[in-house]
Specification:
Blueprint (H helix, E strand, L loop, with lengths): L3 H18 L1 H8 L4 H28 L3 H28 L4 H6 L4 H16 L2 H23 L6 H11 L1 H18 L4 H27 L6
Helix pairs in contact: 1-10, 3-4, 3-6, 3-7, 3-10, 6-7, 6-10, 7-8, 7-9, 7-10
Length: about 220
């Protein structure tokens, strides 16, 4: 039997390739990404990470071992720290303030993604919750790794790439993937299918999140 991580990634390989081809992601490396698109992304990502941290605390509560619980609790705390530090620095560099950014409305894709994420974590099993939160870890690590060698002529974009392509973040993701494989050996076929469905859905939301920033998405009415 293969590793669960391999089974899951095979389900989203096409989605990941679409992410790498997206003009938002390509624009990070060649410096062509408009700053207002990056600003949209940063502000919405701050909103997203506050909800993601709550999702990780639910994973901590449902995790199978104390070690796993502690890991997710630490990751939740780190997600909040990233929101407070890195995003504040990005917003300041773009001519705004953290307070002003926090007051900006949550946009449709952010609302949909975080609502799905929290509903799944609250209402589902630990495996379902893990499937829902995993793409944010894993796709960002893979994107960061793919972009790291090329970096960016824009220092803001280069910093973003370094954050997610660096060894420290990769080690965090590897720990979650090790747990995923360990869990995979214990799941029934039905549980694994539910986990897979959530994993694919939130992977799609990852593409949509970058696309929403590229489009400078707003509420239509």
């Amino acid at each position: 039997m293969g590793l669960l991580r391999d089974e899951l990634w095979a389900e989203i390989d096409d989605i990941f390739n679409r992410i790498l081809e997206h003009p938002f992601v390509r624009g990070l490396t060649d410096g062509s990404l408009p700053q207002d698109a990056f600003r949209h992304y940063v502000i919405q990502d701050a909103h997203y990470l506050r909800a993601y941290a709550r999702a990780l605390t639910i994973c901590a509560a449902k995790a199978p071992t104390e070690v796993d619980s502690r890991m997710f609790a630490e990751h939740a705390s780190e997600a909040i720290a990233v929101e407070q530090q890195m995003h504040a620095e990005f917003v300041s560099a773009l001519g705004g303030s953290a307070e002003g950014a926090a007051a900006e409305p949550v946009k449709p894709t952010t609302q949909a993604y975080t609502s799905y994420l929290l509903a799944t974590c609250y209402g589902g099993s630990f495996a379902e919750a893990l499937g829902a939160v995993l793409p944010c870890y894993w796709i960002y690590a893979r994107v960061g790794d793919a972009l790291l060698e090329r970096s960016s002529p824009d220092p803001l974009y280069a910093r973003w790439i370094t954050t997610y392509g660096g060894e420290e973040f990769q080690a965090v993701v590897n720990a979650v993937l090790d747990l995923t494989d360990r869990l995979g050996a214990e799941l029934s076929a039905a549980e694994k299918e539910r986990m897979r469905q959530h994993f694919v859905t939130t992977s799609r939301y990852e593409w949509m999140f970058w696309d929403a920033a590229w489009q400078r998405e707003t509420w239509p009415v």
